[in-house]
Amino acid sequence: MKNQVLKVTNLTKSFNSGAQEVQVLKGVDFSIYEGEFVSISGPSGCGKSTLLNIMGILDTPDSGEYLVDGIQVANMNSSQRAQIRGDRIGFVFQSFNLIDELTVLENIALPLKYRGDSFEVRQARAKACLQKVGLADKGDLFPNQLSGGQQQRVSIARALAGDSGIMLVDEPTGNLDSKNGDAVMELLQALNQQGTTIVLVTHDPRYAGMAHRNIQLSDGMIVSDGVKSASEGSQNLHTSVEVD
Ligand SMILES: Nc1ncnc2c1ncn2[C@@H]1O[C@H](COP(=O)(O)OP(=O)(O)OP(=O)(O)O)[C@@H](O)[C@H]1O
């Protein structure tokens, strides 16, 4: 039996929209096991990003529990939260969220600085991660000198740098054309095959089909949570993608 790495129980979250309170998550339960590749899909506005932000410890739920490695996040103080986020969770945003003033290598190494790794460790790790995403020769460039697809690969390298083993990925292809989107998804699939646990939010059924398990969210509730049978397997895109 694989280790349970993330667990959400009866999670709720509301936002104030003008005078109205809108309940976005209405009691969500599931667990993520080490090595899984899970997609979360559902209609626009159903709460996918809200859920992923809570799982990335970027936001807090109103009620319910969230456990990382069996530890209750709600009981942690802010420095413990920052530590577990740095040690256990890599986050990939739709809009890359790279810092324009830093080089590619500096962007990747930055999270390691926060957790106190030495300069040498940061450099070595950042270079290794850049190589993993196929951009070894781009380290000294700035983000705006790269294509969107390349920038997303850099943001994946940054999420890998902490060696957290878990990657939460929010619509990684949303700002990319289909060629670069496919290349990013193939990279995520390869990283999962090498052992990274991935939770992917996507509205694209083709990309959701690349995961081994799909959670369908609708109006703040899980309406299905299915692991594919062995015969279904996980889909490949079967494209020969050239990454530019
Ligand atoms: N910070 C916030 N303040 C107020 N409302 C918010 C906030 N964040 C999200 N919402 C609202 O919560 C609902 C769910 O948003 P969320 O981004 O989680 O949906 P989603 O399923 O990821 O949508 P999409 O696929 O369009 O990205 C939406 O109605 C959104 O307007």
TrEMBL record:
One Gene Ontology MF term: ATP binding
Domain ABC transporter: 6-244
InterPro entries documented for this protein: AAA+_ATPase, ABC_transporter-like_ATP-bd, ABC_transporter-like_CS, ABC_transpr_LolD-like, MacB-like_ATP-bd, P-loop_NTPase
Keywords, comma-separated and alphabetical: ATP-binding, Nucleotide-binding, Transport
The keyword ATP-binding is annotated on this UniProt entry: yes
Protein name (database record): ABC transporter ATP-binding protein
Species name: Colwellia asteriadis
Lineage, opening ranks: Bacteria, Pseudomonadati, Pseudomonadota, Gammaproteobacteria, Alteromonadales
